[in-house]
Design goal:
mainly beta; 8 strands; 129 residues
Length: 129
């Protein structure tokens, strides 16, 4: 009887269906990002690429404006063009806001409209020109 139990327990993992291989989530690579002051406004432009295996659906770009100590001063959210980026595809973003006093750097992060955070490569901080 004991031998039968051991044989059955050894055969059980082989009898279970294999797990579906899940695609890795989208990963956003910041190819280029710049910010410059124009009178009283701060203009931010960037170029991004989805290096993941899934589309980045309804991409939300989060821009943190930082002081000289890289501490957050304010945050702004916006979208990309196109709104969703397929694997291997590229997009861009443009934003304008009143320039906060003491703004020296900015950092980017990304999420989908559902609120799911996306991994990012080369998200900053970048210097405001």
């Amino acid at each position: 009887m004991r031998t039968l139990v051991l044989l059955l327990s050894a055969a059980l993992p082989a009898a279970l269906p294999a797990k579906k291989e899940q695609l890795k989530p989208a990963v956003i690579e910041v190819v280029a990002a710049t910010a410059h002051r124009d009178q009283n406004n701060l203009n931010i432009d960037g170029h991004i690429r989805n290096t993941g295996e899934r589309p980045a659906a309804k991409l939300v770009i989060i821009v943190d404006i930082l002081d000289s100590d890289k501490q957050p001063l304010t945050t702004m959210k916006g979208g990309s063009e196109p709104e969703s980026i397929d694997p291997g595809a590229e997009g861009e973003f443009h934003a304008q806001m009143p320039a906060p006093p003491r703004a020296v750097f900015f950092r980017l992060s990304f999420e989908e409209a559902s609120g799911r955070d996306l991994k990012a490569v080369n998200e900053g901080p970048f210097t405001i020109e």
